[in-house]
Amino acid sequence: MLRECARVLRPGGILAGYLIHTTPGLSDAEEELACELGPSSVSGASSPHALFVEAGFEPVTSEDLTEEFRQTCSALGSARDALEVELREAEGDEIYEEERRKEVDMRRGMDGGLLVRSLLVARKA
């Protein structure tokens, strides 16, 4: 996706995006657990900066928003709990349980220092 963004942006164009990635410096076992707890797009040990550079961008800024995202996940979990009956009826039990598991796993990854949520702003080289 980053390469396609670089392809369509003119030189000097700006791309900003939120990323969930593994914490730098994890052991192999921690990296594996982080990939299990995070969304499906979390994989590999490459830093977000390295991925942007590989795609043809120059990272401009990066801001760690893990705590804010943790609060969002907690609020989402609380809302899903409060609306459990309605959501189970609308989504079905399987989807409800899967979405709840994803939220719990994501928080577990952040609480364990394995996952980071960042805002990265980069310029096309």
Structure, described:
This protein is 54% helix and 22% strand. It has a single domain (2-124), classed as Vaccinia Virus protein VP39 (Rossmann fold, 3-Layer(aba) Sandwich). A three-stranded antiparallel sheet has the order 1-3-2. The protein has 125 residues and is of the alpha+beta class.
How are the secondary structure elements laid out?
Blueprint: H1 2-8, E1 14-22, H2 28-37, H3 48-54, E2 57-64, H4 66-82, H5 84-91, H6 93-111, E3 115-124
Antiparallel strand pairs: 1-3, 2-3
Helix pairs in contact: 2-6, 4-6, 5-6
Order of helices and strands: HEHHEHHHE
Give the proportion of residues in helices.
40-55%
**Principal-axis shape:** globular
CATH topology: Rossmann fold
Features:
125 residues; Rossmann fold; three-stranded antiparallel sheet; 6 helices; 3 strands; 54% helix
Summarize the structure.
The protein has 125 residues and is of the alpha+beta class. It is 54% helix and 22% strand.
